């Protein structure tokens, strides 16, 4: 590891806001200082596989390996148009819809089975 890479890792370890990036940076720094995998796992409270993966990823991809790989989230089940309509209804009173079983909306009150049984 070059001196410049070491300085960059130290800078990241002081400024990283993301705990995953910070933990990975510390693992790489400790490895660069000659610490064994066993030492790193003991001090960092992580598994040996994690330490080896981080070190191999850093050796292969460089500083990009420190950033977390967030997976994409689940696709939306409702679109923006439906969401907007739900929000408009939620801002009204159930009485406006001739629902007299309750006076304020709740998740139970918004379910289709409630609507069919209270109308």
Class from secondary-structure proportions: mainly alpha
Radius of gyration: 26 Å
| Helix coverage percent | 55-70%
Compute the separation of the termini in Å.
72 Å
Unreliable segments of 5+ consecutive residues: none
What is the beta-strand fraction? under 5%
User: How many domains is the backbone divided into?
Assistant: 2
Query: What's the main sheet like?
Result: none
Q: Note the total helix count.
A: 6
List keywords for this structure.
119 residues, mainly alpha, 2 domains
Describe what you observe in this structure.
The protein is an all-alpha fold and 119 residues long. The chain has 2 domains: 3-66; 80-118, no CATH class. Helices cover 56% and strands 0% of the residues. It is built from 6 helices and no strands. It has helices at 3-15, 19-32, 37-44, 48-61, 80-90, 112-118. The radius of gyration is 26 Å and the shape is rod-shaped.
How do the strands and helices of this protein lay out in sequence?
Layout lengths: L2 H13 L3 H14 L4 H8 L3 H14 L18 H11 L21 H7 L1
Helix pairs in contact: 1-2, 2-4
Concise account of the structure shown:
This protein is an all-alpha fold and 119 residues long.
